């Protein structure tokens, strides 16, 4: 194993948001280690170092030597099984990251949570009635993750995006403590990555739960768009 030290370690680096985090970090001139359950095919071409890691089972301390800053972009694939009985990526996975950081002396951690872990009557009624109940088990995992962070000594930030949208970085998102800004429902993955990077390299939003997003066009905020995206996640063509 290489003894190279890194500016940033990204867990879940090949996921939709993790890929944006990794690429934007490299563009900023940071040395980046991407950790994934499976190393992506493109790993040789993106300017980062990649290693295969099982965050639930492996010893993570060897990857955190040198006290790097850490972004956890861990996330679950959308499926009926994940919704009813999600693997403990957020709870146990984050607990393992916190333990490894504590052991190695690393202290700055940013994780992805969700704006929907707290009740918000301003969200669209159709979304509150249909999607949030379906995500209850995953949201409970996120609540447990946030509780673990609050009980740790790390300089953590739990970022709470809205429903994620795969579009280019806007550069015009809004940020508010704990809840989404008024009339905001969606968050672009690339905007989320940008905020995560800004937060992890600074002391902004330490031990806080910022929420971010922006108002998108009417179709992207419609039930039809959400249905199409969820169908694509589970491999159904509408």
UniProtKB/TrEMBL annotation:
Residues 12-200 form the NAD(P)-binding domain. It holds the Pfam family NAD_binding_10. InterPro entries: NAD(P)-bd_dom, NAD(P)-bd_dom_sf, Polyketide_Oxido-like. GO terms for molecular function: biliverdin reductase [NAD(P)H] activity; riboflavin reductase (NADPH) activity. This is Putative NADH-flavin reductase. It comes from Parvularcula dongshanensis.
